[in-house]
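Write out this protein's structure.
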Amino acid sequence: MTAPTAALPRATVLLLGLAAATVAVFGIAAARSVVAPAFLALVLTICVHPLRRMLERRGVPRGLATGSAIIAVFALLAGFFAALYIALVQFATLLPEYADEIEAGLANLAGGLEAIGIGAAQAETIVGGLEPSRAIEIVTGFLGGITGIVFSLVIILTLLILMAMDASYGPAVLRELRSRRPALVGALVGFTVNVRRYMLVTAALGAAQGVINWLALLILQVPGAALWGLLSFICSFIPNIGYFIAIIPPLVFGFLSGGWPTVIAVIVLYGLVNAVVQSIIQPKVVGGAVRLSETITFVSVLFWSLVIGAIGAILAVPLTLLARTLLIDADPSIRWWRPATGDVHDMKALAAEMGAEVAAQGRADREARAERRRK
C-alpha cells in the first residue's frame, strides 16, 4: 500500500501564496490602464442592473431596457467629467489671483522649518513642492490630456455595452453553476448586492455632502466653493482619509480670503457634516454591505491606489470586497477567516462576554489586593 504524500510545510505554503499574490499584484499594476476602466465598468453595470430589470418587468423590450440603462450611466459619467473639467479650469484661473499670498505663506513656512532645525536646502525643497506654479502645471497637464479622458470614456462605454448585454444571461449562468459551485455563486451574488448598496448609498450621501459644503462655502465667501464641493463628493468614496483630502483646499483659500475665523468655520462645518453623514447616516443605511475592519479599509485605500492609481482609492472598498469574495467567501472551508476581515457581527456577543470576564477578573484582583493589605 502506497504511503500518503506528506503535505507541504505551512511556511512553504505561505511563501508560495505570497509569491503568487506578488506576481498577481504586479500583473494588475502593469495592466492598470485596462484593469481600472474594466472594473469601473463592472461596478457601474452592477449598479444599473436593477434599473434594467425594472424596465423589463414593465414590458420594455430587453434591448431597449439595456440601452436605457447604459445611456443613463454614460450621461452621468459625461456630466461628472464635464463638471470636473470646468472646475479645474476655474482652479487654474483662481490660483494666480492668490499667488502673492501663497508665496508669502510659503516663505513663512520655510522660515518656520528652519527654526525647528530643518536645513535651508531641505526646507527649500519642501516648500518648492508646494509652489503654485507646480499646481498650475499639474492642472494644465490634466486639461491637456482631455483626449486621454475621452478615450477612457469610450473604453468604459464599450465595456458597459458589452457587460450589460452579457448580464442579460447572468441569471441563467448562475443557475447553471449553482448546482456545481453553490458557495461560489452565493458569494458572487452577495458581492453584487453589497457593492450596489455601498456605491449607490455612498454616491447619494456624497452628493448631499458636496452640496451642503458648497452652499456653506458660498456663505463663508470661500473662493472656488463649487470646486471644493465637487472635491468633497469625489473624496466621499475614499474611506478614512477622503475627509482630510477634501478639507485642505477650503482651509487654504478660506485663510487667504477670510483669515482664521473662516478657517475655524470651515473646520467646524466639515467636521459636523462628515460626522453626521459618514459616522451616523452611512453605517445605518449601508448596514452589513461592507463589514470591513477600519484597519483593512485604510490599508486597502493605500494598497489599491498604489496598484492601479488614483481610481484605486475610489474603488478600494469594492476591490477589497471582490478579493474577499473570491479568496474567502467562495470557499466554505476557510470562511471562518471572515471575522478577521471585519465581519464581527456574530462576534459581538462573544466580545461582550469576554469584556465582562476581564472586568470581573479585574474586580477580583483588586479585592484580593485589598484583602492582602488588610492582613
